[in-house]
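[Solved] Which block belongs to which protein?

Original post:
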Amino acid sequence: MSSMYDFSYRGLEPKRIKVLASHTVIEEMSPVIPSQMAFEVTDFGFHLAHNNLKQTKQEAIDASCFVFETIILGYNSCSVAFVGYL
C-alpha cells in the first residue's frame, strides 16, 4: 500500500520511523502509514486507568529510540499522560 504522504522529502525513511498510538488514533492514521513503518498500539485498558500510561509509553520510547530515528506519538487529548513531555 502506498502512502499519500511522502516521508522521503525530509530525508526520512519509513523503516526508521515508529508510531506509538492509541487504538482510536491508529485507526485514523492507518490509511496513511506506509507498510514499512513500524507501529505499536496502546492497550485500550489505559483509557480506564491512564496513571500507568506515562510510564508504559516512556518505556516504549526508551526501547525504541535505539532502533528508530523518529518516534511519532499519536494520542487524543483524553489521555493526560503526556502532559509535561514538551
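(Second protein starts here: sequence line, then its C-alpha cells.)
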Amino acid sequence: MRITGLRFGCLEVDGVAYHRDLIIMPSGILCPWIRDQGHRLGTQDLETVLDKPPGLLIIGTGMAGRMRVDRDLIRHLGGTKHHLPCHAHPRSRRRVQHRRQ
C-alpha cells in the first residue's frame, strides 16, 4: 500500500480517498477509526495495532498538528515523557515515526 495523496481532510491510499481517520496495516485499512478523546492519542486507541506491534508506527498529527500523543502511549512504545524514539519525516516537523527494536 502507498499513500498517494494528502490534502486537508483527505488521505489517499492507492488512489482511494479517505475523508475519516484511519489506520493502515499490512492486512488492510481500518476506516473509520475514532479516538476516545478527540485530538489525543492514547494506548486504548491503538489496541488493534499494539496486539501485534508493527516494525514501524507512523503517527500523523493532522495538517494543523493538533493531535497529541498521550504519555502512557509514549511509555508503552518505549519512550519517556520527554523523548519518543523517532525518525523525523523530512516534510513535517510534527510527524512521529517509531521503530520497534
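Accepted answer:
You had them paired correctly. Confirming on the second one: The longest strand covers residues 3-7.
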